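Here is the promised in-class demo. Please do not try to memorize the tokens; focus on the logic of going from shape to residues.
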């Protein structure tokens, strides 16, 4: 290790320590221990260019241990990604570009929002899958236009979380050889030595998953770390897992090797001692970085500029030689034409007979696959039930990365993280699927998608007690309320073919919002009044005979809209005139103008009944104090679906009874 290399590694350490100390909050342990491996990777083995952070063929780096964010921020600062010293001084402060955990879209150079441990590992697998698929679609002899690595760095916590095992098991099965994991092995977690809860042979586990495993005994030896990374790159059959043995809090005499180094500032005296121990100039000064450090990083950054320049030259030749591939590339990297899709009669074609919305969704997927060659997706071992298979598009596998049908196995949590990675990579539009009740397993990664503004599509089928004989373990009740509670996600429960088309239109035209399509197992009738107005979240699907004097409003979603219309007809026989509103998406309805919302749900009409075979939680804002709900107030049961709907009150007669009581009480 040269003197300047040592100095640049230590610059990461002292800058991280200073930022955390100034904030009086943060995690110095990982940056101090992992600085050498991060420096070696970024300096000598990773193609990246601060002058073009979105360069399509850059290597991706995900800090899965997001609590160590000052490691990443220091690298971004030194390489010139736009983080200034003032940004470093504002670590963890309101509105700063250096929040406590890295946030995608907020800080240039951050490839993924990482906070929940292990999430970055799952997203890295998705990025590696994206690289493999796009390479198979676009590379030509002599023109490897998609040819980059995905690196992820994490520690013991990432390896303890189950998501990493789910994701790595799939990565090994798929032979993702351009995925390289750096394992910061310091054997310390918040509660102390990891032996209190984590004694497994991690390398043996990774070999069992199908990874090449490499161990670096000294986490400060740049030469050995570099050789390990090159050895990982040399394996063209397996993903690689590099264990780098480090000392948490390295360099701080009072803290290194201790749990207290993990998640609290070192303290001013200990920061000074760290600098003295590292031989740092003027240890009394904070945020003091010598110019030769910046000069060296500037020289290192030129490698990335040169790498992109060479790629740009190759890509220009590629586009000239393969104009059809150029056109396909542009289509993969351009949003679908929303106006053309809106006016596409084939996409909006109505059905005549009763059909389950899961089946209707499957038809839309197979319609869209020809319009959107970059559409890719699959299910957690449920494609025949979720209806998510793209006909004639092949299965993505170790021997066929060109396949567009993804098989995740029974791994819902990793599946959702991988969808994030596929989307973050760029060039692909991802959808994933499972039963709605198992959205519980996907929720942490759905939350990250919403936080990052990723337009991932989730196909959640078997959406209510209509599941029937499988019983309460498989019948969702509270999941709708859970998803609706998330900011920045459109939760869409369609009632028929037109509304299902609207849900998919919403999903594939969204720029920064994920979409959850909540679909039935059972057949639903086609509604004469359904329309593209579903894109507003709620609309009048069956109007009252005299709207100016209607007695009440019935609001339904999904399978209960037709039930509400039946109840409307029955109420009409008693001279009670009501409107039926279909509300497939509360989230969209809330985005409409006050005038539109008033036109659908007039404030003067207080007699309202919401009908949904899911939890009533959240319906209060629409039915008010005077209204009522016909919803699930308990878990379901095991029986044929028709019997369950009757048992739990989802009948025309019961809805009519509730509506009459509400209307009478509001007079």
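The designed amino acids, position by position:
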């Amino acid at each position: 290790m040269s003197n300047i290399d040592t100095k640049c590694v230590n610059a990461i350490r002292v800058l991280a320590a200073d930022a955390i100390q100034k904030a009086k909050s943060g995690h110095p342990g990982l940056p101090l221990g992992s600085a050498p491996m991060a420096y070696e990777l970024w300096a000598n083995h990773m193609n990246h260019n601060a002058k073009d952070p979105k360069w399509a063929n850059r290597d991706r780096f995900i800090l899965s241990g997001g609590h160590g964010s000052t490691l990443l921020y220091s690298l971004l600062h030194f390489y010139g990604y736009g983080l200034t010293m003032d940004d470093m001084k504002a670590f963890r402060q309101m509105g700063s570009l250096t929040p406590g955990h890295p946030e995608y879209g907020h800080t240039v150079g951050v490839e993924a929002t990482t906070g929940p441990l292990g999430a970055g590992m799952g997203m890295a697998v998705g990025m590696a899958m994206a690289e493999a698929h796009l390479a198979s679609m676009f590379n030509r002899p002599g023109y490897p236009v998609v040819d980059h690595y995905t690196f992820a760095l994490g520690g013991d916590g990432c390896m303890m979380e189950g998501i990493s095992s789910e994701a790595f098991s799939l990565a090994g099965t798929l032979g993702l050889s351009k995925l390289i994991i750096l394992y910061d092995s310091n054997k310390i977690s918040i509660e102390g030595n990891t032996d209190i809860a984590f004694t497994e042979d991690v390398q043996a586990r990774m070999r069992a998953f199908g990874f090449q495993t490499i161990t670096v005994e000294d986490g400060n030896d740049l030469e050995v770390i570099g050789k390990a990374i090159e050895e990982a790159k040399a394996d063209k059959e397996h993903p690689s897992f590099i264990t780098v043995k480090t000392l948490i809090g390295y360099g701080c005499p009072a803290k290194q090797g201790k749990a207290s180094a993990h998640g609290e500032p070192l303290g001013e005296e200990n920061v000074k001692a760290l600098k003295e121990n590292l031989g740092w100039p003027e240890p009394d000064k904070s945020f003091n970085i010598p110019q030769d450090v910046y000069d060296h990083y500037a020289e290192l950054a030129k490698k990335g500029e040169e790498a992109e320049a060479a790629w740009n030259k190759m890509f220009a030749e590629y586009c000239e030689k393969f104009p059809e591939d150029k056109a396909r590339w542009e289509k993969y990297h351009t949003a679908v034409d929303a106006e053309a899709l809106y006016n596409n009669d084939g996409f909006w074609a109505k059905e005549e007979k009763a059909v389950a919305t899961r089946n209707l969704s499957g038809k839309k997927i197979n319609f869209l696959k020809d319009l959107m060659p970059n559409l890719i997706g699959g299910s957690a071992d449920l494609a025949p039930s979720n209806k998510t298979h793209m006909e004639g598009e092949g299965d993505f596998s170790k021997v066929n990365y060109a396949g567009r049908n993804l098989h995740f196995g029974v791994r819902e949590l990793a599946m959702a993280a991988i969808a994030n990675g596929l989307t973050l990579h760029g060039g692909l539009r991802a959808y994933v699927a499972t039963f709605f009740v198992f959205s519980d397993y996907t929720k942490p990664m759905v939350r990250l998608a919403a936080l990052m503004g990723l337009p991932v599509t989730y196909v959640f089928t078997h959406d209510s007690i209509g599941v029937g004989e499988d019983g309460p373990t498989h019948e969702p009740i509270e999941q709708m309320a859970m998803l609706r509670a998330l900011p920045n996600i459109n939760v869409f429960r369609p009632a028929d073919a037109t509304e299902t088309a609207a849900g998919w239109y919403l999903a594939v035209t969204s720029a920064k919002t994920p979409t959850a399509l909540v679909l039935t197992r059972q057949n639903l009738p086609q509604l004469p009044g359904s329309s593209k107005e579903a894109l507003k979240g709620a609309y009048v699907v069956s109007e009252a005979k005299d709207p100016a004097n209607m007695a009440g409003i019935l609001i339904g979603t999904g399978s209960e809209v037709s039930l509400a219309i039946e109840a409307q007809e029955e109420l009409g026989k008693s001279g009670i005139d009501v409107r039926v509103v279909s509300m497939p998406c509360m989230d969209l309805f809330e985005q409409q103008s006050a005038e539109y919302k008033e036109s659908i749900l007039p404030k003067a009409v207080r007699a309202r009944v919401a009908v949904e075979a899911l939890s009533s939680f959240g319906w209060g804002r629409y039915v008010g104090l005077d209204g009522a709900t016909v919803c699930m107030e308990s878990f379901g049961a095991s029986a044929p679906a028709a019997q369950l709907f009757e048992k739990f009150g989802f009948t025309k007669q019961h809805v009519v009874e509730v509506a009459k009581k509400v209307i009478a009480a509001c007079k």
